[in-house]
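Cross-check.
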Amino acid sequence: MHELTEKVSQVAELYHRLILVVSPSGWGKTSPLQEAARETGGRYINVNLELSQRLLDLTEHQRSLKTPLLLREIVESGVCEVVLLDNIELLFDLSLRQDPLRLLQGLSRNRTIIASWSGSLEKGHLIYAEPGHPEYRTYPAKDLVIVNSKPSSLVEGCGPLA
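Predicted model, tokenized:
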């Protein structure tokens, strides 16, 4: 069994059933998420693709108001108990005025959410982007379930968790 799918049973009784797969952009999070979707019978969702399609015809103000509702609709459109969210970078777009971690935690109250997070885990903090970048975010990692991928664990380009 894959490390990611083992975490699913570990979060089953938690308030937030959220698992974050953390590593820098381009380090191979997609393949492990797709594999975990197959193993758990979960639903794999490319958030950037699905959400951007729904936001296209909205004004900037409407986008910021409707993003949480639209994301919830995307996640709840299937009956899967486990939903895997990949390519979540759109949630960090400043014009949407969202707190991505809070959005993910809210979604994880009623089902297990496994989400890719392009960033790092440093000194007990979950980081997105680099300091000085407009989308830079840092969160205390306490009480978060994180699969932290390191470059040394990459296997022939299959990703850190393969």
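The chain is about 35% helix and 25% strand. The longest strand covers residues 112-122. Passed to J.P. for a second look.
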